[in-house]
C-alpha cells in the first residue's frame, strides 16, 4: 500500500470526522458490484479495508443487494457468497425488493444520518452519492481500494456551515438530544394533535368580594336652616351677657 495513497486517505477521513462526526467503527455499505470487482482482483475486503481506513470497520449490506445477486444467476455466485458474510441492514423494501442502487441511496436519505461509507462500482450509485453531503465513497481501481476525495456537495455544505448559513448534522443531533433530555422534543403528530391545556389557577380574591351598593347623591346642606341656628345662638349669648351687667345706680336729686 503506497504511503502517499494512505496519507491522502487519512486526510479525507479527518475531513469527515471533523465536519460530519464520523467515528469508529466505520460502517461500510457494500453492494454486489464492489464484491465482484474485489473477487476479480483478489482483494480480501475484510483484511484490507480496516488497514486502508486505519480503524475498526463494520461491513454491511442490504436485503435488496443480496436478492439482486440471486436473480443475476451463476455469473455472480462468488460475489453473492462474499456479500452474504457481511451484516444485513434492514431496509424499507423487505416485502418488495428494489434494485440495489435504489436501495443503497434510500439508506443514505438526504443527510446520511447513520454515517455510512458506500463501497460500489455502480455509476448510478456513485452519481447519487455525490449529490448527498457527507458520504465517503469507496471503489476499486488498479487492484487497490480507493477512498474518493470529498465531493463538491460536501465541500459546499461545510462552507455554508462555516458561514453560519446552515446547521451542521452534528449540531442538529446535539440539539435534538438536548431537547429529548429536557423533555422539550415531541413528535409532530402529538404536537399538532394535542391542544394546549389551560392551566388551572385560583380565582382572583378581589372578584370574590361582594359589590358595594352604590349610594345615591349626597343631599345638599340646608344653608338657610344652618344660618338660622347660628343667629339664634348669637342672640342667646347676647341676652345672657346683658343679665350679668350691674344694675344702674339711682341718685337723689
Automatic annotation (TrEMBL):
<comment type="function">
    <text>Involved in rRNA-processing and ribosome biogenesis.</text>
</comment>
<feature type="domain" description="UTP23 sensor motif region">
    <location>
        <begin position="194"/>
        <end position="213"/>
    </location>
</feature>
<dbReference type="GO" id="GO:0032040">
    <property type="term" value="C:small-subunit processome"/>
</dbReference>
<dbReference type="InterPro" id="IPR006984">
    <property type="entry name" value="Fcf1/UTP23"/>
</dbReference>
<feature type="compositionally biased region" description="Basic and acidic residues">
    <location>
        <begin position="177"/>
        <end position="191"/>
    </location>
</feature>
<protein>
    <recommendedName>
        <fullName>rRNA-processing protein UTP23 homolog</fullName>
    </recommendedName>
</protein>
<keyword id="KW-0698">rRNA processing</keyword>
<dbReference type="InterPro" id="IPR029060">
    <property type="entry name" value="PIN-like_dom_sf"/>
</dbReference>
<feature type="region of interest" description="Disordered">
    <location>
        <begin position="174"/>
        <end position="253"/>
    </location>
</feature>
<dbReference type="GO" id="GO:0006364">
    <property type="term" value="P:rRNA processing"/>
</dbReference>
<dbReference type="Pfam" id="PF24779">
    <property type="entry name" value="UTP23_sensor"/>
</dbReference>
<dbReference type="InterPro" id="IPR057776">
    <property type="entry name" value="UTP23_sensor"/>
</dbReference>
<keyword id="KW-0690">Ribosome biogenesis</keyword>
<dbReference type="Pfam" id="PF04900">
    <property type="entry name" value="Fcf1"/>
</dbReference>
<keyword id="KW-0539">Nucleus</keyword>
<comment type="similarity">
    <text>Belongs to the UTP23/FCF1 family. UTP23 subfamily.</text>
</comment>
Amino acid at each position: 500500500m503506497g504511503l502517499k495513497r494512505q496519507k491522502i486517505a487519512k486526510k479525507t477521513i479527518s475531513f469527515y470526522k471533523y465536519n460530519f462526526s464520523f467515528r469508529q467503527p466505520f460502517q461500510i455499505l457494500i453492494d454486489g458490484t464492489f464484491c465482484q470487482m474485489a473477487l476479480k482482483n483478489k482483494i480480501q475486503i475484510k483484511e484490507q479495508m480496516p488497514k486502508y481506513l486505519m480503524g475498526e470497520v463494520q461491513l454491511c449490506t442490504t436485503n435488496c443487494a443480496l436478492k439482486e445477486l440471486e436473480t443475476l444467476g451463476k455469473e455472480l455466485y462468488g460475489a453473492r457468497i462474499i456479500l452474504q458474510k457481511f451484516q444485513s441492514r434492514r431496509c424499507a423494501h423487505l416485502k418488495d425488493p428494489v434494485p440495489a442502487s435504489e436501495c443503497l441511496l434510500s439508506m443514505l436519505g438526504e443527510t446520511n444520518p447513520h454515517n455510512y461509507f458506500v463501497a460500489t462500482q455502480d455509476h448510478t450509485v456513485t452519481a447519487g452519492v455525490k449529490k448527498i453531503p457527507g458520504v465517503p465513497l469507496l471503489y476499486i481501481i488498479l487492484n487497490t481500494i480507493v477512498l474518493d476525495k470529498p465531493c463538491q456537495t460536501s465541500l459546499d455544505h461545510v462552507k455554508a456551515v462555516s458561514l453560519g448559513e446552515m446547521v451542521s448534522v452534528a449540531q442538529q443531533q446535539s440539539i435534538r438530544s438536548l431537547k429529548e433530555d429536557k423533555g422539550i422534543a415531541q413528535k409532530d403528530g402529538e404536537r399538532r394533535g394535542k391542544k394546549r391545556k389551560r392551566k388551572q389557577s385560583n380565582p382572583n380574591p378581589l372578584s370574590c368580594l361582594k359589590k358595594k351598593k352604590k349610594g345615591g347623591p349626597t343631599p345638599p346642606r340646608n344653608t338657610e336652616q344652618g344660618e338660622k341656628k347660628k343667629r339664634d345662638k348669637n342672640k342667646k349669648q347676647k341676652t345672657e351677657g346683658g343679665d350679668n351687667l350691674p344694675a344702674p345706680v339711682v341718685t337723689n336729686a
